[in-house]
Amino acid sequence: MIAVAHPTTTWYLLLSALLFAIGVVGVLVRRNPLVLFMCIELMLNAVNLSFVAFAKRMGDIGGESTVFFVMVVAAAEVVVGLGIVVAILRRKPNATTDDLSELKG
Amino acid sequence: MGALLAADTLHGPKVDWFALTPLIILLGGAMVLLLVAALTPAWPKRAYALFTVAVGSAAAVMSFILWDRINHQGAKTLVGDAMWLDKPGVWIAITVCIGVVMAALLTDDYLRREGIDGPELYVLYLLAALGAIVMASANDLIVLFLGLEILSLALYVMAASHRKRADSQESGLKYFILGGFSSAFLLYGIALIYGSSGSTNLGKIESYFRLNPILDHSKETLALAGVALLIVGLAFKVAAVPFHFWSPDVYEGAPTPVTAFMASVGKAAAFAAMLRVLLQGLPHWAQDYRPAIWTIAVLTLVGGSVMAVVQTNVKRMLAFSSISHAGYLLVGVEAAAHNAGNGLSSTGVSSVLMYLLVYTVLVGGTFAVVTAVGRTGDGATDLAGFRGLGRSKPALALGMTVLLLAQAGVPLTSGFVAKFGVIGDAVRVHSYAIAIIAMVSAVIAAFLYLRIMISMWIAEPEAGDDAREAVRVPALLCVAITLSVGFTLAIGFFPDWLIHAAP
Amino acid sequence: MLDVVWLIPALPLAGFLCILLFGRKLGDPKAGYFATAMVAGSFVVTLGVFFDLLSKTAEERHHVKTLFQWVPLGSAHIDLAFLADPLSITMCLFVTGIGSLIHLYAIGYMHGDPRFSKFFLYLNLFAFSMLMLVLGSNMLVTFLGWEGVGTCSYFLISFWHEKDSAATAGKKAFVTNRVGDWGFMMAMFFAFWAVGSLDYSAINGAAASLSVTTATAIALFAFIGACGKSAQLPLYLWLPDAMEGPTPVSALIHAATMVTAGVYLMCRISPILNVASSYAPTIIAIVGAATALYAACVAVAQNDIKKVLAYSTVSQLGYMFLAVGSGAYTAAIFHMVTHAFFKALLFLGAGSVIHGMHHEQDMRRMGALRKLMPITAATFIIGWLAIAGVPPFAGFWSKDDILLAAYDKNIVLWVVGLVTALLTAFYMTRQVIMVFYGEARWHDAHEEHGAAGDLGVSAHGDLEPHESPWMMVTPLVVLAGLSIVGGGLNLPFKESTERLALWLEPVVGVHTSTTAKLPLALVAIAVGLVGIAGAYAVYYFKKVKPVEPKILADAWGYDRAVSAFMGGPGRKAFDGVAWADAHLIDGAVNGSGELVRGAAGQVRKLQTGNVRNYAAAIGASVVLLLVWFVVIRGLL
């Protein structure tokens, strides 16, 4: 007999933490600016998952509606970020974040 | 049928539109500027800047009227408990408006000198100011997050807006990546606080923790982790050590007027938000976060002043100086955390607010001088660029000297009054160690300001100095510097009224 | 008249502002005359205030003039206010009096300097700051002046920044002074915390009700501040380096006025010092005595005419702290005043010599100048007799008062004081002989040195040492007169002749002694004469020997004479002290500056410019914060 484990909100919270951690690690190890954006988006969406899980656990609509705000913010961030990246890549094609370290000390 | 319609009516929150007028003015101004400027040929010289100054001033005037209303009717929450209309919020709104006016005065000639035209930067100032005020008056963590993002997104673009300078774009990208990174932490913190208290509303969070002093273990862990991540997000925004790494690079790379705006408005909004979150939302956890704030404050004080010593670029020096100012402000926050139960009427809050206002004016004037000295290309901001300023432009050098002395906290300037306030509050709540450290760091930091003064007044001219482009101080820049120096000295001599006014 | 006390600092401030605006237009020498007139005007006002105070009874000699309320503190205020009382007006009298003489002198000394008016700009700003310091009715106003004099001193030391060492010396002064400032700030905060006010009258009034620990803390922190400003061990070492500045600056700031600010501060808060636990004054007395002896030892081995005077100043300041630590505040002030007379005189005399010698400062290249510079020589000799403690010159009386107080405190302190007096007489005699007597060694000096074309040489042209112009000589004569009669301020014969003590009594109290004064005075005279005789024997009779062929060898001969006199070990000891001075203590101060620099350099490497490293720093900090909140606060 296969034991069927019923997923609880805690599972989703752990999954969200895992996704968030993946996003953090991605920011720390990847060099392509576009991938960095994706990692930051992953972090934001991981938090969204948390919001939904908490809302579900507490039977509160607030957490779910928050998600929409976060999505809008994330979309705006992408627009701005892509704008900056495109401007930079036009000047320096194939630039990685490691190349962009003129300002230091 | 009529009954059915009535039952279907949506009951949104009651909105006190009048209380939102500063925000509406800023938003309206931004929209008008964006649309009208897009449809009309380039406006005459100074018109964009003067329009922005007018909008900022109008918002400030409305804030004063609201201030008066609070005097009569007391503080209250707006838009379904999402925002506060209270004195600290309005105070920061006024501070932000001053920041906008100063930045606009700096920008006009800068843009024409650098060959960048168009009203975009001004639109971004106005939008960022809107976000800053929302952030500073938020009574809900999600509103706070939205305000922070409105402010930050505008700042990222502003930092990268000098398309001819690689430095500017690099700084924009760095700011964007790190800002997004840290605001994700902030958002996660909000989620965890929501998960443990069941709300994102600061008032509800506060009452939940107050009414349930003994939480079960998992909720307590969630809440503590949430507090930690909220502190990360806010400490990043105020550029506290060890979350400060972005600020020297971004300050150096961003166009100088933007740096002024960033240092003043960004800091004011973030500190106001920090006070609200820690004192209005989470006083229950004061015993837990106070040591963390203490540590961050000490690191920031010492780090800011020590690291400034080896810098040679004035914008970078001022970035570290701004970090050390954040340290002083954190001294005030730490003092307030000692009696966090009093919300925003805790000892220390009014000194922090006072400091923010004073610093906004101070930093506006200081960067105004740097804008002028930066010369075409905005590149001559290292110490050598200031060499001989005492000879070629004595009035400008004198103004800068006053502003630098004020930043160092010399008596008879506004900077002294501000520093005296926060350190005095730290002493008042018996937080002696941090007061002593703050004084030591003032001693170290003095060196940084002195170096700039020496460069202006004493350093010998070198070959090629005369071949440099002359420093020009156009009218609006002159106005900004004069206002800033005048305010700095006026508050230095007569700080009385302002200290009494501070909420 | 008392209400115009604000004019005293206001006049130099006005001078500063006018020169700031019109300095270049006024030029050389009008800017100098203008600046001098401002300080002299402030001297006249001070005299008016002084006579007004004098006409009142002792209890009424305390007047606070509030300009405006400044920093509000709850219900109380810190005001921008001036306090006219016997102590502050005494200070003002000699600050403005000697200040205007030195301003006058500087007109001659700085003549021909390309930045003539800027020099007077700083001098007037300095006078303003010093008067704020002295007249402030609360610690904050004093602190404002305190910072101001420090900054001016810094700028004036670096005035001839073409010289590399001048810039370094300015930096060193800055670092050590900041340590002192920190002490002052701490004292201020302790006083504010304990008393709730920064007014001297409130602090001193509440002294009796303070706990011993608090009073001790305030006193000792203030003493750290005083050590920095008044160049006491271990913070003294900026003062000898400060001699890089123009000589009028050395005379005004680094001998007569600014360096006495620490002594003034200790006298000002003397009620606190009296309440503090007994080890606090003892520490002050020991530091003072140690500094006095140490600096006198170093002075013996110096060859630079100004360095000798600089170490001598440190040593004399040590005397003043010895007096403060012994509870004899009047004696400290008395010595401060007489010292201001004769040390300003000696510095100005040295300046006159340097001016006449075309900026030569090495005493080994001087000699026999008394014939060429008769007035300078005569006045310098009066200064020498005053500092050496020969009666009836001024220094004798004040030094005697201090030695008496030290004797009452502890006989060891008295012995240290006596040895210092002996050394003082010795090195000053050595200096007088080397400069004004003996062989003329300056011809060769010019062949080697004058060609280097030091500042202002071209303005003079001739290579012969010459007497200085009248604006330089007049102050010398006036100060010489004061150095002769200055002792009359406080003659120890009977109570009514102790005028200074009576005058200052309402502020600093009175120091009573039961010790017989005459034997002590005789011992002091004897010691002074022995010192003079010793130096005379070594340096003067050395000269009677056949003239040595090479001047340089002759100069080194003096050094040999020192070692012959002191014996091998004695010589080594002096060298050792001088070495320690140059390496260890210097190193410590430079070291702390270097430490900050080094640390900053290391931290700087963290700022790599790579955004991923920054993110990693944030990530690591997040982990630390989470550990604190979740693990330490939550689980444990």
TrEMBL record, chain A:
<keyword id="KW-0813">Transport</keyword>
<dbReference type="GO" id="GO:0030964">
    <property type="term" value="C:NADH dehydrogenase complex"/>
</dbReference>
<dbReference type="InterPro" id="IPR001133">
    <property type="entry name" value="NADH_UbQ_OxRdtase_chain4L/K"/>
</dbReference>
<keyword id="KW-1133">Transmembrane helix</keyword>
<feature type="transmembrane region" description="Helical">
    <location>
        <begin position="12"/>
        <end position="29"/>
    </location>
</feature>
<keyword id="KW-0520">NAD</keyword>
<keyword id="KW-1278">Translocase</keyword>
<keyword id="KW-0472">Membrane</keyword>
<dbReference type="GO" id="GO:0016651">
    <property type="term" value="F:oxidoreductase activity, acting on NAD(P)H"/>
</dbReference>
<dbReference type="InterPro" id="IPR039428">
    <property type="entry name" value="NUOK/Mnh_C1-like"/>
</dbReference>
<protein>
    <submittedName>
        <fullName>Unannotated protein</fullName>
    </submittedName>
</protein>
<dbReference type="Pfam" id="PF00420">
    <property type="entry name" value="Oxidored_q2"/>
</dbReference>
<comment type="similarity">
    <text>Belongs to the complex I subunit 4L family.</text>
</comment>
<feature type="transmembrane region" description="Helical">
    <location>
        <begin position="67"/>
        <end position="89"/>
    </location>
</feature>
<dbReference type="GO" id="GO:0042773">
    <property type="term" value="P:ATP synthesis coupled electron transport"/>
</dbReference>
From TrEMBL, chain B:
<dbReference type="InterPro" id="IPR001750">
    <property type="entry name" value="ND/Mrp_TM"/>
</dbReference>
<feature type="transmembrane region" description="Helical">
    <location>
        <begin position="222"/>
        <end position="246"/>
    </location>
</feature>
<feature type="transmembrane region" description="Helical">
    <location>
        <begin position="429"/>
        <end position="450"/>
    </location>
</feature>
<feature type="domain" description="NADH:quinone oxidoreductase/Mrp antiporter transmembrane">
    <location>
        <begin position="138"/>
        <end position="444"/>
    </location>
</feature>
<dbReference type="GO" id="GO:0008137">
    <property type="term" value="F:NADH dehydrogenase (ubiquinone) activity"/>
</dbReference>
<feature type="transmembrane region" description="Helical">
    <location>
        <begin position="395"/>
        <end position="417"/>
    </location>
</feature>
<dbReference type="GO" id="GO:0016020">
    <property type="term" value="C:membrane"/>
</dbReference>
<feature type="transmembrane region" description="Helical">
    <location>
        <begin position="173"/>
        <end position="194"/>
    </location>
</feature>
<keyword id="KW-0812">Transmembrane</keyword>
<dbReference type="GO" id="GO:0042773">
    <property type="term" value="P:ATP synthesis coupled electron transport"/>
</dbReference>
<feature type="transmembrane region" description="Helical">
    <location>
        <begin position="317"/>
        <end position="340"/>
    </location>
</feature>
<keyword id="KW-1133">Transmembrane helix</keyword>
<feature type="transmembrane region" description="Helical">
    <location>
        <begin position="352"/>
        <end position="374"/>
    </location>
</feature>
<dbReference type="Pfam" id="PF00361">
    <property type="entry name" value="Proton_antipo_M"/>
</dbReference>
<feature type="transmembrane region" description="Helical">
    <location>
        <begin position="291"/>
        <end position="310"/>
    </location>
</feature>
Automatic annotation (TrEMBL), chain C:
<feature type="transmembrane region" description="Helical">
    <location>
        <begin position="332"/>
        <end position="351"/>
    </location>
</feature>
<feature type="transmembrane region" description="Helical">
    <location>
        <begin position="119"/>
        <end position="137"/>
    </location>
</feature>
<feature type="transmembrane region" description="Helical">
    <location>
        <begin position="308"/>
        <end position="326"/>
    </location>
</feature>
<dbReference type="GO" id="GO:0015990">
    <property type="term" value="P:electron transport coupled proton transport"/>
</dbReference>
<dbReference type="InterPro" id="IPR001516">
    <property type="entry name" value="Proton_antipo_N"/>
</dbReference>
<dbReference type="InterPro" id="IPR001750">
    <property type="entry name" value="ND/Mrp_TM"/>
</dbReference>
<dbReference type="GO" id="GO:0003954">
    <property type="term" value="F:NADH dehydrogenase activity"/>
</dbReference>
<protein>
    <submittedName>
        <fullName>Unannotated protein</fullName>
    </submittedName>
</protein>
<dbReference type="GO" id="GO:0042773">
    <property type="term" value="P:ATP synthesis coupled electron transport"/>
</dbReference>
<dbReference type="Pfam" id="PF00662">
    <property type="entry name" value="Proton_antipo_N"/>
</dbReference>
<feature type="transmembrane region" description="Helical">
    <location>
        <begin position="470"/>
        <end position="493"/>
    </location>
</feature>
<feature type="transmembrane region" description="Helical">
    <location>
        <begin position="520"/>
        <end position="541"/>
    </location>
</feature>
<keyword id="KW-1133">Transmembrane helix</keyword>
<keyword id="KW-0812">Transmembrane</keyword>
<feature type="transmembrane region" description="Helical">
    <location>
        <begin position="251"/>
        <end position="273"/>
    </location>
</feature>
